[in-house]
Amino acid sequence: MIQINNKNLENKVLIIRTIVVAGIVCALALFTKDPIPFIIGVFFGVTFSILSFRLLDLTLKKSVNMPPKRAERYVASRYMLRYLLTGAIIYVSISNTSLNVLGSIVGLMILKLVITVSNALYKEQ
After folding, report:
1. Confidence category of residue 120, pLDDT binned at 50, 70, 90
2. Is residue 6 assigned to a domain?
3. C-alpha distances in angstroms, 89 versus 31, 43, 120?
4. 93 in a domain, yes or no?
5. 38: which DSSP letter?
6. Do the Cβ atoms of 51 and 92 come closer than 8 Å?
7. Is the pLDDT confidence value at 2 over 50?
8. Span 65-109, pLDDT tens digits
9. How many domains does the chain have?
10. Alpha-carbon gap, residue 110 to 26, rounded angstroms
11. Does residue 123 fall inside a structural domain?
C-alpha cells in the first residue's frame, strides 16, 4: 500500500511539473505576434495529456487484478481508446480556428517531456 501512495505522489508531482512547464511555455508565447490561440492550444493539449495520463494510471491499476488474457485485451483496448482520443484532439485543433495546432501538439508533448527529463535527472533515487 505504501508503494501505491508513493506512486500517487509521484504522479501528482509529474502533473504539477507539467503545469509549471506549460505555464513557462505560455509565458514565452506572450512574446509572439498572436499568442492567444497558441496559449489556448497548449492549455487544450496539456489538459487532455493529463487526463490521458490519469486514464493510463487507472488502466494499469485495474489490469493488475485481472487474469492475463483479460488484462491483455483490456490494456490493448484502452491503449487504442487513448490514441483515438488523441487523434480527435488533433482533429479538433486543426478544424477549430481559435486553437493553434502547434500549441495543441506542444501541449500534448509537455507531459512526455517532463516524464523523460524527470527520469533522466532522478534516475539514481
Report:
1. confident
2. no
3. 26, 12, 29
4. yes
5. H
6. no
7. no
8. 999 999 999 999 999 999 999 999 999 999 998 899 999 999 999
9. 1
10. 12
11. no
Instruction: Give the domain extent around 102.
Output: 48-115
Question: Is 69 strand, coil or helix?
Answer: helix
CA atoms within 13 A on the CB side of 91: 6
pLDDT score for 121: 84
Instruction: Give me 54's grid cell.
Output: 490519469
* Cβ pair 78, 62 in contact under 8 A: no
Cell of residue 89, nine digits: 484532439
Give the integer Cα–Cα distance in Å for 118 and 116: 6
Distance separating alpha carbons of residues 96 and 91, to the nearest angstrom: 8
What's 96's DSSP letter? Answer: -
Q: Which secondary-structure segment (H or E) carries 40?
A: helix 35-63
C-alpha cell belonging to residue 101: 495546432
Instruction: Tell whether 5 is covered by a domain.
Output: no
